[in-house]
Amino acid sequence: MRQATSLFRERFGSAPTVLVSAPGRVNLIGEHLDYNGGPVLPLAIERRTAVVAAHGEGWRVVSAVDGTVHALDPEAPLGDHWTGYVAGVIRVLGRAGLAPRGAQLAVASTVPIGAGLSSSAALTVSVARALTGLAGRRVPPETLAEVAYHAEHDEVGVKCGRMDQTISALARRGYALLFETATARLEHVPLPSRVWVFETGVAHRLTGGELNTRRRECEEALKLVARRGPAPRTLADVPYDDLATLVRELPPPFSLRLRHVVTETDRTRRAAAALARRDLVTAGTLLVAGHASLRDDYQSSCPEADLLVDALVRHGAYGARLTGAGWGGAVIALAPEASERGMLTAVQAEYREAFGRLPAAWVTKAAAGVRSEK
User: Fold this and answer.
1) Residue 154 has pLDDT above 60, yes or no
2) Burial class (CB within 10 angstroms; exposed 0-12, middle 13-18, buried 19+) of 253
3) pLDDT tens digit string along 84-114?
4) Please, what sign has the CA dihedral across residues 144, 118, 149, 106?
5) Is the pTM for the entire model greater than 0.85?
6) Does the domain formed by 196-364 have CATH 3.40.50.1450?
7) Where do the domains of the chain lie?
8) Residue 110: is it exposed, middle or buried by C-beta count within 10 angstroms (0-12/13-18/19+)?
9) Average pLDDT across the chain, whole number
10) Which CATH architecture describes the domain 2-190?
11) Catalytic residue at 164?
12) Which of 45, 113, 154, 202 counts the highest number of beta carbons within 10 A?
């Protein structure tokens, strides 16, 4: 908050009137299910994005990443730049009558960019909260999540689901969130453990590319399943007992995408139940199985993530897996606190030997969602 406020004063010559922050997230399990109608189990991390704002003529934004003031025209093509996410929020709020006429905004963040930790949702949720505050509107967090989702999905063009925006807006400290995306049912699940985050150092991009391709493949898999019997509403609704037959009948890659979604749906609900009874051993085993599915069936992993998961489990973690969309990003792990130091040393040594660099590693507890700051 201090960095964002200082940047605002330097670039705009005045003090901000609204100060907001929102967290990034890690998804414990339930990867690529939010746009397939399945359950997800994310938690908000302690790293956050701060947005400070005041009324202004037109729209001007600045980030601590480069310190450059950008003038925005929300109606212009968004382009491939972080300011497109801000402009997307302005468009969505404007159509709903929730935006001010103009604003100046400064952004600073401790959420790593491109690490699969939802820096984009932290930005869009915090911008939505800041701008509705400037407009004098009290907007519930559920609405902020929807605004942020439509900004990213409809305006920027990322074919994401609602998980990232929902956890960034609605998270509770000390809890993960079981989010049944098909019904919008939310259940806060106590998280009796810290979570380790290992950054692969391989950045991913969400617009275009593999994520949008996977979503199209899942949509086609659903059409193929519907031709063989009663049509499920979503891919996650396919009964587990039908999976083996359907995998034999569907051609690849659609059979692989189907198998990941159906098995990950089952793993996610079992993991939530394990956490509720403080069974970290079972939860860890499910994380490892989830990573194998991402690697083999969804084909969204990378060598760096595979090495980290294998090394973490061998050196004492209950379980580990790639989190986020994939093709880079970060690996998460649940581990006994007594073995954390030895685990960290051994895993970093193996990673450096294989890739010539150390992976950034840090630990987080489950944090709170979007909030106003003083």
Assistant:
1) yes
2) middle
3) 999 999 999 999 999 999 999 999 999 988 7
4) positive
5) yes
6) no
7) 2-190, 196-364
8) middle
9) 95
10) 2-Layer Sandwich (3.30)
11) yes
12) 45
